Amino acid sequence: MEKKDRIHPLIPELKSMMEKGSVTRRDFIRYSALLGLSATAAYQLAGLAFPATAHAANIKRGGTMRIATGIQKVTHPAQFSWVEPTNILRQVAEYLTYTDKDNITHPYLLQKWDASDDLKTWTLTLRQGIKFNNGDEFNADDVIFSMNQWLNKDVGSSLLGMMGGYLDAGGIEKVDDHTVRLNLKKSEIAVPEHLFHYPAMVLNHRTFEGDFIKAPHGTGPYTLEVYKESERAVLKRRTDYWQKGADGDPLPYMDGMEFVDMGDEMSPRIAAIQAGEIDMIDLATTGGTSAYKALKDDKRVQVKPIGTAQARVLRMRVDLKPWDDNRVRMALKLCQHREKILGLAYFGQGLLAQDFHVAPVHPEYCNKPIPKYDPQKAKQLLKEAGYPNGLKVNLAVGSEWTDVVRYAEILKQDAAPAGFNVVLQTMPTSQYWEKWTEVDLGVTPWTHRPLGTMVLNLAYINGADGKPVPWNETNWADPEFSKLLEEANGTLNVDDRRKIFCKLEQIQWDRGSIGIAWWQNNWQVVTNRVQDSQPHPTGYMLFNKVWLSKMKS
Fold first, then answer.
1. Using CB atoms within 10 A of its CB, is residue 58 exposed (0-12), middle (13-18) or buried (19+)?
2. Residue 368 Cα to chain centre, angstroms
3. Higher pLDDT pick, 553 / 398
4. How far is the CA of 303 from the CAs of 315, 520, 526, in angstroms?
5. Is 442 helix (H, G, I), strand (E, B) or coil?
6. For residue 252, is the peptide bond before it cis, meaning its omega torsion is within 30 degrees of 0?
7. Where are the domains of the chain?
8. What is the signed CA dihedral for 195, 217, 85, 459, rounded to 10 degrees?
9. CATH 3.40.50.2300, applies to 309-519
């Protein structure tokens, strides 16, 4: 008889909490999976049926899927700052884990993981028999090499901000060719979810030299045949991929995928999907409101909604005047008429937010009242800050994000009674991304993360060197906030974690560097011939099991 896998001692505690009603079934599944319990077993313990998969008899193989997206410059995957290029390359390179549309994290290139009782030692067991598309065997050396890239300050990955507080290169241990042990500096519950952060692609340590396009060797279901910046990317089906389909043959089902750059404007993409020239519009980082409005009633197209923690973040550089004064920051935040912004900028397709980067979909979310639009209080704060006659500020926005531009226009109008003269500096989206951490005032799209701790670690702390982590675009770091966040990172009990988050949210609300007016719904937009595709809250595409119902001539 084989020895049963160890069950983490905190899982019975979680089950007890679920039975008492202090943890939802969904959150029980999420946290049990993080602690190494299989998703199937977690669903069973929660009394839920595991999601069904497609039957082999219904599936057709073949065909090429065409997707409208941006084809951006790509070099080092660990340096990714946007989702669009990862949606192309995640078909070629893969991740150790996978967080699904319900925020449940599963092993992927890992067979399993085991966490110690104190959440400070994580043992990662790799799947065996997986090969890179150049024939090299996937093993522990690839994992260790990739992690060292993530934690190398010279690479400048956002993963350094997310993981560097609890892991350094000295804590990565090779146990054998298919086992890696992470010895953390402090407890951390979200390690498996961090391994699916979009820059965390696993690289081939034998061939990667800093530019993935020059050596596109991954373990994924497709090979990269063509990658032309601002034009197109072409992927071809592998015949030796490690996963098998419902019919018993190797995945993927499609022959290939083609990504086409149609520019940043949404109207050509909408016209192309209506004409059947493309099968999907990638809305991962582009504003999806115009596509939603134009296509939601089109019977040829599926517009699949999903609630998210995606946000348009009004961000202020606290090391630059006038935003170094919290009274000025608070004054501008009070000029957000949130109901008006959500209704006019996003057609009401989302939830109102409260100027802290934790959303209602996060299990740790601590519910607080929605701040009211108060230009008179904002005017008084400006006067106290030394601006009795008002203040002129420049607001940088990407012009192709239509909802961001509308948000900025509404803010400009509603901030005027407080004394703000908001000058809009619209620019191409690509230009905004070139300077998104540098502008003193801007609106930055932030994608969904499944846990509230993740984005806080990415964007609102300093690193071990005392400098802002790579994605801390506002340069804001608060000692009390950082200490509480470190405590939350190692707290499993959701009730205790939520109590910490009540304090974290209040600090960011009271003296933080951002305004968030609403949380967005996201949509997956595909034609009716695309089968078994699921919307993902981050807009991620994992299409090895997607198939096409009809072939194009």
1. exposed
2. 24
3. 398
4. 30, 15, 7
5. strand
6. yes
7. 1-52, 309-519
8. 30
9. no
